Amino acid sequence: MEKLVDKVAIITGGAAGIGRQTALLFAKEGAKVVITDVNENEGEKALQEIKAINEDALFIKHDVSNEGDWKNVVSQSTEKFGKIDVLFNNAGIYIIKPIPEIELDTWNKLMGINVTGVFLGLKHVLPVMEKQNKGSVINASSIAGLMGAPGHLLYGASKGAVRVMTKDAAAEYASRGIRINSIHPGYITTGMAEYASEVTHASKEELDAAYPLGRMGNPEEVAKLVLFLASDDSSFSTGAEFVVDGGATNILL
Predict the structure, then answer these.
(1) Which pTM does this prediction carry?
(2) H-type helices in the chain, by residue range?
(3) Alpha-carbon dihedral of residues 57, 244, 113, 147, nearest 10 degrees?
(4) Which domains are delineated in the chain?
(5) Where is the Ketoreductase domain (predicted)?
(6) Do 43 and 20 form a contact (C-beta atoms < 8 A)?
(7) Pick from 230, 147, 127, 226: which is nearest to 183 by CA?
(8) What positions carry a catalytic annotation?
(9) What SS3 state is found at 25?
């Protein structure tokens, strides 16, 4: 049975990786999908894939760190579909650097996307959901928001912020029928894992071996967790952390 029939979902960073796979899965489950991304070419390609499943879809070019862009996304989404039921704050960037090498401009750029982007999504989407007295928000954190690792102060700080922002927002909006949860993936077979392999000089096989299940995850596995949180199946979950990491945070290395 389709789990998101007639629901309207916004997915940031929807042009590739986890965002793209989630958008495709949502469309299969009956949702009207709005994908946003800074990459216009890939966004349009993803839109055509989604429309092949469900014609009710929209792509909007979107810098999540820009408040004007967020206002435009909410305006276009509500004008076309009349409501917003689900927000997946998925857009983010990944940088591994030793602390002394982190330049302030780099810090500000990553925080603008990974942290401010989530805040602005909450700021502008939650009032729409409040009028409906229902909604589900899923914020993409990471296992880097739960544990420490060398070279991860910048990225980990941003994902730790998303983790706690999720709890604060969930506490504030629980009485208004809105659920807000965070997901915490380990390495998933996307461009971010390829980047990590290049920077750390670890092969894919070495990254796979770091996980108790013997492999990294794939975007479809994360998308299924996001679907659960977007759907009514998770109706009693809010302010919670959902870890999808092949057991990595369950062992002491």
Answers:
(1) 0.96
(2) 17-28, 40-51, 67-81, 104-111, 117-132, 153-173, 191-200, 204-209, 219-230
(3) 170
(4) 8-183+222-247 (3.40.50.720)
(5) 7-191
(6) no
(7) 226
(8) 155
(9) helix
